[in-house]
Amino acid sequence: MAVCGPMKHLPFAAALGLVLATPSLGEAPPKPAALAPSEIVAAAPKGDWVAIAPDDLLVMDLAPDYRGPSTGSGSRRVVIQLMPPPFSQGWVGNIRKLAAAHWWDGLSVNRVQDNYVVQWGDADGEDKAKARKLPDGLAVVPENEYVAHTSSRSLCYQAFCPDLPSAITMWRTTIGDSTGLSTGFGAGWPLAAEDYIPGKESDSVWPIHCYGMVGVGRNLTPDTGSGAELYTVIGHAPRHLDRNIALVGRVIEGIENLSSLPRGTGALGFYEKAEERTGIVSVRLGNEVAGLPAYEYLSTESQAFARYADARANRRDAFFIRPAGGADICNIPVPVRRVK
Question: Mean pLDDT, to the nearest integer, of 199-215?
Answer without folding.
Answer: 82
